């Protein structure tokens, strides 16, 4: 149990330390770490991401707590959550203390310019991996995170119901500006209608 708690802490500390750009940008790293440790399958991580996104609070904390509870109970949740929060806390304290001194430094500005497109790339990778897990029948090992992995792992089954819900949610959100909370409820109702009935 102690070994698991140490692994949880340092895994989520690494996720918190090296994820720039917030919750969406950390999804690929969270998926890779959780699947590599054998704590969840690739498909389970997609479900965990959905639950973490629609529950109140920051995505990183919700996902760390979710994985912690699943693998190590309440203590695991506390350890994983502390691990993911601690790097941000330390960095924000340091930035707040020294930001005025370094804010206008050309090297700092250049680093920030370099980080922005990387964050967009990570968010796009997250969207791709979640879409493949939602729209296609794929293996549990997460190898569909790449284009070649996706093509070799599609089991010939396209989930048209998920694609329909996606299209309805996208049109409702973009064209009709439906509130995100209502979209979540609507999608849940559509899921019940399409999958359970």
Structural class call reads mainly alpha
Please work out how many helical segments DSSP would assign. Answer: 8
What is the beta-strand fraction? Answer: under 5%
Q: Compute the separation of the termini in Å.
A: 42 Å
Report Rg.
19 Å
Number of structural domains: 2
What characteristic shape results from the CA principal axes?
globular
The number of strands is 0
Overall residue-averaged pLDDT value: 84
General description of the model:
The termini are far apart. The protein has helices spanning 2-18, 23-37, 42-54, 59-102, 106-135, 147-153, 160-174, 180-196. It has eight helices and no strands. It is globular and about 60 Å long. It folds into two domains: 2-158, no CATH class; 159-197. It is an all-alpha fold and 197 residues long.
What would you say about this model in short?
This protein is an all-alpha fold.
Keyword list:
197 residues, globular
Write the layout of secondary structure elements.
Blueprint: H1 2-18, H2 23-37, H3 42-54, H4 59-102, H5 106-135, H6 147-153, H7 160-174, H8 180-196
Helix pairs in contact: 1-2, 1-4, 2-3, 2-4, 2-5, 3-4, 7-8
């Amino acid at each position: 149990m102690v070994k698991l708690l140490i692994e949880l802490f340092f895994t989520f500390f690494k996720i918190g330390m090296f994820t720039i750009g917030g919750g969406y940008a950390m999804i690929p790293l969270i998926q890779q770490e959780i699947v590599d440790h054998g704590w969840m399958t690739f498909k389970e991580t997609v479900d965990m991401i959905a639950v973490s996104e629609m529950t109140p609070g920051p995505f990183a904390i919700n996902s760390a707590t979710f994985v912690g509870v699943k693998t190590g109970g309440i203590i695991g949740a506390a350890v994983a959550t502390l691990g993911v929060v601690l790097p941000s806390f330390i960095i924000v304290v340091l930035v707040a203390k020294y930001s005025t001194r370094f804010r206008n430094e050309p090297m700092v500005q250049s680093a920030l310019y370099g980080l922005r497109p990387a964050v967009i790339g990570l968010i796009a990778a997250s969207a791709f991996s979640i879409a493949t897990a939602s729209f296609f029948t794929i293996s549990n090992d997460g190898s569909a995170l790449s284009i070649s992995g996706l093509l070799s792992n599609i089991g010939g089954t396209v989930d048209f119901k998920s694609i329909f819900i996606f299209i309805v949610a996208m049109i409702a959100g973009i064209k009709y500006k439906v509130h995100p909370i209502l979209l979540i409820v609507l999608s849940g109702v559509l899921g019940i209608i399409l999958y359970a009935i």
